[in-house]
Design brief:
Blueprint (H helix, E strand, L loop, with lengths): L1 H6 L10 H4 L9 E6 L3 E2 L11 H14 L5 E6 L2 E6 L1 H9 L4 E6 L4 H14 L5 H15 L3 H8 L3 H8 L6 H8 L5 H7 L5 H14 L3 H11 L4 H7 L3 H14 L3 E5 L4 E5 L4 H13 L1
Parallel strand pairs: 2-4, 3-5
Antiparallel strand pairs: 1-5, 3-4, 6-7
Helix pairs in contact: 3-4, 5-6, 7-8, 10-12
Amino acid sequence: MAKTKRGLGKGLGALIPQEVVTQAKPKTTDQIMEIDINDIMPNKGQPRRHFDKTKLRALEDSITTHGVVQPIVVKQIKDGYEIVAGERRWRASKNIGMKSITAVIRSLDDLQQAQIALIENIQREDLNDIEEAMAYESLISEHALTQNAVAKAVGKSRTYITNTLRLLKLSEELRSYIIEGVLSGGHGRALLSIEDEKLRSQLADKVANESLSVRETEKLAARAKLVKNTTVSREVKDTFLVEYESDLQSVFGTKVNIKQGRKKGKIEIEYYNDEDLNRILGMLKNK
């Protein structure tokens, strides 16, 4: 058993629960060798989906100067090797034209591979909160692990795993905000207290536009739940937008709604029949 844990690497094997480690033992000991860089494939289960181009270029410069200080970890597959840990080092090395890279060849099953890839990224703090949540979800759905087993595997509390998984309930738009760094996972969890998705999106735009803190977002969400959606929709708008709406309503004699997103917005002018529509169009033409 100790041999199996040493095979997983210092700091990684210690985080994998005993019942998981014993599911499959490596058939051979680790091998370290230089491998043709084109014989190596990315990990199809890589938890990280977003690779920062600026950080990758910095790594390329470092490898150009100092070489690859730490070998990547791979496992042998039918057509070559698949990365277990170190995909950024492999990508950077390939980008600067290296022909080969030093790698530790390790015999692992799919579950062990998924765990080590996730743990390496967590230890390096390389994952955004959505990528981390998706990786936990993959361990649970694809490998039938409980949240407790996942928590033990990555050295986190079960509550932490549960709260991180909750972020997957956010819309694609709000997930993208977190992936891009516009909002944090803490902002996302605060916004989840709002059940109405349209209102949640409005609040998210306000939080992003005004760079509100997580605590401020929690207070905003709490206030939003105390009043009707129609009232809140106006409350979350910037004061100048409400004033513009009031001015336009006075001009057109009907309800006007200004919706502001992170990158674009729209103005909605209500009409009640054909005659009302023609009146408004006539006013617009004469402006």
